[in-house]
Amino acid sequence: MIAPVEEACKLAVVLAFVWKNRNFNEENDGIVYVTASAIGFALFENVFYVWSNGFGTGIARAFTSIPLHTFCGVIMGHCAGRARFAADRATANRQILGGFLAAVAVHGLYDTLAFSGTALGLLIVPLVIALFVVGRSLILSGKALSARRWDNPADAPRMSIDTADQAMARAVAKYGTGKIGRTEDGRFFLKPERQPWKAIVARGLFAVVAAGWIFIALAARGGAGEPRADLSEALTYLSLMSLVPLMLAILLEVSYRRRKSGNHYF
């Protein structure tokens, strides 16, 4: 149950925010972006593990969990990079799904071994070594595909899985003709637009998170005689509960400011 959720979070960041970026212009970029997302996820996860279980847990996870997250990102990134330049959308979807399922399978096997509570847990070591080998092979493959693209651009796959007309048709159907612009070089963009609901929701979430921390601070100040364990548990719980609304608030605030101040390119 853990593996699909965590791997989906890593992949979703790239599909939502990087997939159509003009800098995603070669196959190996898929590995770069998805792996960066995976390492960021591992960072957040490790902060809470170390906070709850001590520094020794962080050292142990550096040799097992971090490589797991990193090379699951490499697996999905390799497939995402190839999908970005697939000949059609159906092929792209199959490649993305295949990479996701492969990463979930590896991650699920790792978790099964880690939580087995038996000698099977020792199999994590050869699993991590195998991930290094497979990951290195995929990185070399991605670099070769990228090199072929720049050395022989005429023979390389198309730079986009959609033609300009298809992209324009989808944009008009979704946003309407009045909100779509087109540059001289054929790029489509959303014209600047104020979206006050994003600002209202984002700042409301910021206020809720801040109120929670203020409440804990006042409780700690007024309850000097209370057990420190209770306070520590409250801080840990609040940190975990604050993470998702805080990230959502930041994304909404950034989106609000970008949409009102400049063109948003597809």
Describe this protein's structure:
This protein has 266 residues and is mainly alpha-helical. The chain has 2 domains: 2-161, no CATH class; 196-265. The chain is built from 9 helices and 3 strands. It has helices at residues 2-17, 28-53, 55-63, 65-84, 89-114, 124-151, 164-175, 196-222, 228-261; strands spanning 180-182, 188-190, 264-265. The chain has a 3-stranded antiparallel sheet, covered by helices on one side. β1 and β2 (188-190) form a beta hairpin. α1 (2-17) packs antiparallel against α5 (89-114) and α4 (65-84) packs antiparallel against α5 (89-114). The protein is flat and about 60 Å long.
What is the percent of helical residues?
over 70%
Instruction: Quote the beta fraction.
Output: under 5%
Low-confidence spans: pLDDT under 50, at least 5 residues?
none
Query: Total strand count, please?
Result: 3
The secondary-structure element order is HHHHHHHEEHHE
User: What overall form do the CA principal axes indicate?
Assistant: flat
Please describe the biggest sheet, giving its number of strands, its sense, and whether it closes into a barrel.
3 strands, antiparallel
Q: What is the total domain count?
A: 2
Number of helices: 9
Q: State the separation between the terminal residues, measured CA to CA.
A: 34 Å
Radius of gyration: 22 Å
What does the average pLDDT come to?
83
Strand order of the largest sheet: 1-2-3
Structural class: mainly alpha
